[in-house]
Amino acid sequence: MDKDIGQWPTTWGQEFSVLLKRDLLGRKHKSLSIIQVGQMLAVSFLSGILWWKSSINHIEDQIGFLFAATMYWSLYPMFTAILTFPQERMMLIKEQSSRMYRLSSYFIARNVADLPMEHALPSIYVTITYWMIGLKPTVGSFLVTLVVMLYNVLVSQGLGLAIGSAIMNPRIGTIFGGIVGQAFLLASGFCIRNVQSFVAWIKYISHNYYVYKLFLGSQYKMDDLYQCGANISCRVGSNPTIKKVGLGNKGISVVVLGLLLVGYRVIAYISLKRLRETK
Asked: If I label 137, which of 27, 92, 170, 240 is the partner at 20 to 30 A Cα–Cα?
């Protein structure tokens, strides 16, 4: 990944270890500040109260919450990540020009350091809201929902890193990220069911579409029944939103999200490498 490996004063592993420790110390106070934890607790309990003890008979409420969770935990990590590399731009240029470490060791350490910090808050959110709202009361469904949420955060963060490193202007990057995030969310299938054919392809590159599909799949099966009227039962598969998004092809959704997770970070790395080579 980096040229002239033999000219570096330390090994890649030593660089990675030092940079990882530095990033973990820096991220500890930034990601888990009292204010942010308090904010997350407030959002979690507010969501739990608004959707309190819902059930499959109120399926529209439940799928509405799942979309709201998809939206919040797509935009929040994306906007945070957009600012990451622009804020460290001058430091990175200075340290790279001094050949203090390889770009690859910095980049991978930065991403690994984000894992525990970025997963703590969404884990709290899911743990609180899942049981307050009354989603499918099984440990298996809860764990699947939690894993999908963390997957969503990683992919959304990767999108933010790609945008931030490619643009390197916090204001423009945030505006562009807002446009992309809005398009991806609207194309996911909850807000708009009859999308025009010339823009229908957007959902296939939207991680929100695959995340939302996995969220729905963690809660329902097509043949599940819910009360859709007085003494009337309907199949979950007949619900307009679920019929549009679908519950099948979970494996494909997981694979596509994995490709996006890696692909966005490859774009971010290439953009940082270009930045280094132009300075």
From this structure: 240
What's the confidence (pLDDT) of residue 34?
82
Query: DSSP label at 251?
Result: H
C-alpha separations of 221 from 63, 225, 237 in Å: 13, 9, 7
Residue with tokens 């423009």: 172
DSSP code of residue 134: T
Low-confidence ranges of the chain (pLDDT < 50): 1, 3-5
pTM here? 0.89
pLDDT of residue 155: 98
Q: Which of 167, 185, 187 lies closest to 175, judged by CA?
A: 167
CA dihedral sign of residues 2, 174, 204, 217 = positive
| CA–CA separation, 47 and 124 (whole Å) | 13
Diameter over CA atoms, the chain: 77
Q: Are 33 and 120 in contact (CB under 8 A)?
A: no
Can you tell me whether residue 228 is helix, strand or coil?
strand
- 132's CB contacts (< 8 A; 6+ apart) are 45, 47, 48, 49, 51, 52, 53
Percent of the chain residues topping a pLDDT of 90: 61
Length of the chain in terms of residues written: 279
Question: Can you give the C-alpha Rg of the chain in angstroms?
Answer: 21
Q: Residue-wise over 168-190: b if at least 16 C-beta within 10 A, else e?
A: eeeeebbebbeebbebbbbbbbb
| Start-to-end Cα distance in the chain | 18
Checking phi first, is residue 239 left (phi over 0); if not, alpha (psi -120 to 50) or beta? beta
Contact 102, 15 (CB under 8 A): yes
Bridge partners for 227 per DSSP: 233
**231: domain range?**
5-278
Number of domains in the chain: 1
| DSSP summary character for residue 234 | E
